[in-house]
Structures are given as structure tokens and as C-alpha cells.
């Protein structure tokens, strides 16, 4: 019995010893010095992966690693010392040869004395169970250098068993998965899970947004519980969603190899790591292992005023149609983001009235607290003398890529205050609606300012007594798209007067399918079929369009088809064209429409042979497996041949995501008296009116009026110049993506993607009693520039890749109607002008001392103009044809 007890105690003792000696992470042998080589390199390219097309650099060194202390109570508690020696910086691309910026330069000249000394000072790493407990270095070392040391130190954090866990290293707090094999461990870091404080923003709309993918894989070769080799590779790739030729890629690699071991420092005794650290060097201090932010200082860079002086000549009114205007606008916006309020205000106050509107566009697009405060101080909303500047400011707010609560709060304050112009007051409320939607899309619906704005819109709509106020709040709701506003919209759609009813139905038209419930469709069916009151054609046709575009039932489609033949003549033709367009374009409702058309009562010659000039057509501008651009044009005439409404839409789709690029609606009413014609049913008492409304990039703009009332019509007919009226004109920052990346090597990367455009949308309606002819014209002139800038910075050397893609395009729609006889003659045309398409690429490597290498490429082509089909009989898609121009390439020193 005594023998058994002794054997049991021996077993327990040996088992305890084996557990104590077991390590879950790397373990260093006592009194040994591990001598390794280390290198980290980074490459930038456009995703093609060819070394000769890349720019970047490599930092290499020898590394000494020694165990200073091991906790006597557990082998897995270690303090190690890591020292980088013989640091070198060189090109990754050895083909650079004599053009290498590092040729003939020592590490001391490349990095500077302070940086080199700091990088070669030893660092301490406290590991428990293979995970970093603390990282120790010296105070006041350059942050960029500390990050490089953090990148090396993070490689020593690993575990020798499979599993998923969270680790804190230079990349932040990240989810990592370990796959352990015989003598090898693979660590996969989910970079999208890393929690680290970094600045950045992006355009929330998926069509205009940037897609990115990041991977990190580290492979450890293990022998005797220590690494003999480590290979880490991290990649960051991005691409612009709607233009897949705009791409970029960052590849960062780290390599650590054991060369030899030799006798090292003796193990220090003690029970606490803190005591050992103090004994090694009292100047050591614990700092976060997570990478820290640093800013590279620009030596001798121009001030914001100097930047503006070189930019303003490109932003003269006559130059806005050129790509260089947009390119300089984008560059100046970037400079404004680092400027102070006083600097911005100084530029605003000294600028001439010709360039001020463009400067207001830029300042507002910067979207910083300083730029917002400066522009609000500069603009006087109590005065009606600067309406153009106020409107440019408000529209720039509406197109803001990443608006914040501060901006919304500022506009609410302006709306509640005194505003000199009623048009500006209306525009403020319309843009408040836009900001509400954008903030809600970015999970900001519960922000105090958003809640207040919602109450302002819904409460204002409920209490509005004047038609002007009702219209203002409906337009705001058309941008905000609040689900809570649908009951009010239904009330105004069914019971409101003509223009208000039409605005309410077009607002409902912008809501997504889940919000067009059976209850909503019941009201729309009553409006279309006029069950309770007589409605204008524009209201009825919009109600029918909403029903047909939102999962209509069999009976809803059948009733609409049965109504054709019982409607006013032009409305008959219009509804017939809508149904035919659904079938030809294979819209979602086409299947159920075809089912209904199998019934003879719905599909017969009497119903489908109705004559008229109204039309509806949808076609493709561009189509690929990845994306599609569509246009649609529907025109509704009155029975007398006068235009009632023309509606031109352009949409861009990426997968299931869509963007309402533009909508231009020209509407006219009450003009029958001019030609002694009889108004259609429900439109006998309409005032003479013509105007234009526009949506641009999902933002409803304030409608403009051509004339309102008979006397206004006559005065403008007598004094008409035929010049178009501008709906929107200005510079818009449309794509805005900024991302700061902490590479696990310690280097800092930045990805910037900006897209801007100079736009001018104008429209005109001409009416001739003498020739009994009306003409409408909508002209879109757009110049687009998209720039990308990828950089990787170590503070002493920087590599970058810049690209620019630009085009100047025009789209014009003209509709001419001669109503001297019936059926009246209609001529419609939509033309796209020939457009240049240019691409630029610039790659560079630059030392902080100023020496650099640059390579540039340029590619040009011409997109041929074409005419788009506008009716069923001519449905061949307008094809884009590229005419390539000679490429040019240059490289050299700078």
C-alpha cells in the first residue's frame, strides 16, 4: 500500500512538471542569442501584380533576440529583448538601376540620424502564453520608427495550437485563426475585424462607393518551440464600383529568418518583469503595441492662400467645362481639409464675384468643421443679395459625401432664423430632407438633430396652411423618404389639389418596394380609377406607374389594362406605351402583364390600336455583366397637342444597388386657351404654368418656374430670348473615399479616391402661336474627373501611385410638336456628343530629403457620339465606340 502511494505521488509530480514545461507560444532557450535577418517590403500597383509596374521599397536589417527573464512560476511568462542592427533601405524593383533613389546613399543619409538611432535601440517584449502582455521602448522616439519596431515585435506573437481568438498587435484588436501543423503554424488575421482608431470616410451609396478587400496570412516554421522562419503577406485591394478600370493594390511583406544561435546574456533572476525592466534600463516605458498615428511634415509646402492663387485661374466661369477645372477643384478641396477657419475666411472675403460660386462649392465640399464655420460666417442668409452663393452652398451640402450632425444642426438653425429669400428658405428645407436620409443610411437616425429635423418636416407638413409651405415640406419629404410620412403623402395624393397631389404621388414613387404596401396601393388604385374624385392626368399616370413598378397583383394589372380605351385620347396612348415598355424592357411586372394579356378582354385590337403622340420608352446607355446604365423618357400630351409632361431619367445600377443619376421633368398646364382648345377632363380650371423639376444623384432640387399665370406667360412670350434656364450649375464632389491603413509591417498607407464633376443642366420651353408649335429642350453638360492616390509612408521614404480618369460629355433632348392639325406632328431626339476619354498614371518614390523617381503614362481615346432610340420601333442600343489615340510614357528624376 505504501509502495502504491509513493508511485502515485511520483506520477503526479512528473505530470505537474510536464505541464509546467509546456509552452503555448514561442519559447526561447536560456542564455542564448538568436541571430536573425529581417526585411519588410511594400509594393504599389494597379492590381496587375507585375513587379516592373510597381513602386515601393524594402527595409532590411539583422535582428538579435535574447531571453532576459523567465517567470520562475511558469515557462510561458517571458521577457525578451529585440534589437535591429545594420539597417538598410533599398528598392524592391532592382531593375530601377541608376534611377534608384537609394543609389549611393547610406542608411544614415536616407533615414537621418535620429530615426536610425531610434530604430536600432533595443525594445522589450513581455510575452505570456505567446501573447503580448506589454511592449517597451524609449520615450520620445519618432512615432513612425516606433511603428516599424512594433511591426517586427508583433511577429513574435503566436500560438502553437489551432483555434480562433482575438489578439492585440500593431493592427489593433483583431480576430485571428491559427492552423497548426507539424512544425508549421499558419495565422490568418481578419483585417476587417480589427478595431483601431484611424481616420477615414466613404460615399455610402454603393454605386459611387469603393469596394475593398484585405487579407493577412503569416506562416511560421517552428523548431524547438522557436521560429526558424516567418513569412507574412498582407494585401489591400480596392476598386471603384461603377468603373472597374479604377483599381489599386498594396502588398506588404515581412520575412524573418533564423541564421544562427550563440551564447547570449545570462538569465536575470526575479519574480516581476517590472523589476527586470527597471534593472535593464530605467528609461524603458510601456507603450501600446497597437500602431499609432503620425503625420509627415511637409517642408516648404505652399500655404492655402498660395494654393488658391494657383487654382483660381482654372475656376473662372468660362473654364468650367474643361477637365482641368474639375481636377484643380478636387486638389483644392484636399488642401482645404487641412486649413483653418481664419485662412478660409480670408480667401472668401478677398475673392471676386465671378469665382466666388466655385470657391463656395470647394469650401462646402471640404466638409470639415473649420470650412463649415468659415462659410456660415461668410454667407448672410438674412440678405437676398447673395442668393446664388447661398444656393451653391446648400446644393453642395445636399451632395455632401459624408455629412455629419453638425451640418444638419447648422441648417436647422438657419431655417428657424431669418432668411431673406423665400426660394432659399425652401431650398434649406429641401436639403435638410436630403441630410436626414443620408445620416439615416449611415445609422444616424437616432441623432438629436435628425430627430429634430424629422419633427420639423412631418410637423410642418401637418400644420402647413399655405400652398407654398405644403410644397416645401413635400419636397423635403421627397428627399428624406421617411416611412412615417407615407400617411400624409397618401392624404395629399388623394385629396390635394392638382400640383400638390402630383407632388405627393411623385414623392411616393421614390420609396422602395417594402414601403409600397397593399394599403398604399389601395389609395393609388382609387386615384387612378377616380373612385372618389376626378384627378389630373399627371397624377393618375404617376399612380399607375407606382402600382406597375411595385409587385402588382393580377387584378391590379387587369383593371389598368381594361381602363385603356376609356381614358382621354392621349392618356390612352400613354398608358398603352407604358405597358409596351414594361414588356419590351422585361421589367419585373412583365411576367404578370403577359399573363393578363392572355385574356382576350384585356388584349384586343380595339384597346391596343389607340392613336396618339404620347410615348414611353426605356433603353440602355451601357450594359455589362457587372453594371448597367439606363435611360427612360415618357411624354404625355394634352388632347390639344400641348406638352403636359416630359420626364427624362437616367439610372446607374451595380448589381442590385441603384443610383438615380438624374431626372429632368418639364411640366405645363392650362395652355389650351391660347389656341382655343378644350381642356381634358379634370383640367378645366388650371392656371397657365410651365416649369422644370430635377433630381440629381438622388437629390431632389428646388423646382424652377418658366412662367406662372396668363399675364406672366404673355409677358415672357413677348420678351422671350429662347435662352435656357439653368436648373443646377456648379462643381460637385460626388465620390469621396479616404482610408488610412496601419500595415502590420509598421508602415502607414493611405487610399484616397475622389470624383468630381462640373455640371450644367438647363431647360427651355418655347411656344409659338404664329407657327402653332411648341418646343422643349433639356441640355446636360458634364465634365467628370476621378482621381486616386495611394501612398505608403515610413516618414523618411514615401511611395505613391496616382491615377486620373476624365471625360467631358454632353446629352441633349429636344422635343418639337406642331399642333396645327390632328394628329399633331411630334419630333423627338436625344443625342450624346462625342466625348474625349483620358487616363493618366503617375508612380513615384521619394525621400524626405526631396530626391525622387517618377514615371508617368497617358492614354487617350474618343467616345463616339450617338443618337438614342426614343420609341419602340427603333430600339437598337446606342453603342459606345472608342477611337484610341497614341499612348505616351515618361520617367525620370525630380
Automatic annotation (TrEMBL):
GO biological process: cholesterol homeostasis; lipoprotein metabolic process
Name of the molecule in the record: Microsomal triglyceride transfer protein large subunit
Predominant location category: endoplasmic reticulum
Catalytic reaction equation(s): a 1,2-diacyl-sn-glycero-3-phosphoethanolamine(in) = a 1,2-diacyl-sn-glycero-3-phosphoethanolamine(out); a 1,2-diacyl-sn-glycero-3-phosphocholine(in) = a 1,2-diacyl-sn-glycero-3-phosphocholine(out); a cholesterol ester(in) = a cholesterol ester(out); a triacyl-sn-glycerol(in) = a triacyl-sn-glycerol(out)
GO molecular function, one term: cholesterol transfer activity
Protein keywords: Disulfide bond, Endoplasmic reticulum, Lipid transport, Signal, Transport
SUPFAM superfamilies tied to this protein: Lipovitellin-phosvitin complex, beta-sheet shell regions (SSF56968), Lipovitellin-phosvitin complex, superhelical domain (SSF48431)
Pfam family of the protein (one): MTP_lip_bd
Domain Vitellogenin: 28-659
Gene3D superfamilies, per database record: Lipovitellin, beta-sheet shell regions, chain A (2.30.230.10), Vitellinogen, superhelical (1.25.10.20)
Function description: Catalyzes the transport of triglyceride, cholesteryl ester, and phospholipid between phospholipid surfaces. Required for the assembly and secretion of plasma lipoproteins that contain apolipoprotein B. May be involved in regulating cholesteryl ester biosynthesis in cells that produce lipoproteins.
InterPro entries in alphabetical order: Lipid_transp_b-sht_shell (IPR015819), Lipovitellin_superhlx_dom (IPR011030), MTP_lip-bd (IPR045811), MTTP (IPR039988), Vitellinogen_b-sht_N (IPR015816), Vitellogenin_N (IPR001747)
Any one cellular-component term (Gene Ontology): endoplasmic reticulum
Signal peptide: 1-17
Compartments it resides in: Endoplasmic reticulum
Alphabetized PROSITE patterns for the sequence: VITELLOGENIN
PANTHER family in UniProt: MICROSOMAL TRIGLYCERIDE TRANSFER PROTEIN LARGE SUBUNIT, MICROSOMAL TRIGLYCERIDE TRANSFER PROTEIN, LARGE SUBUNIT
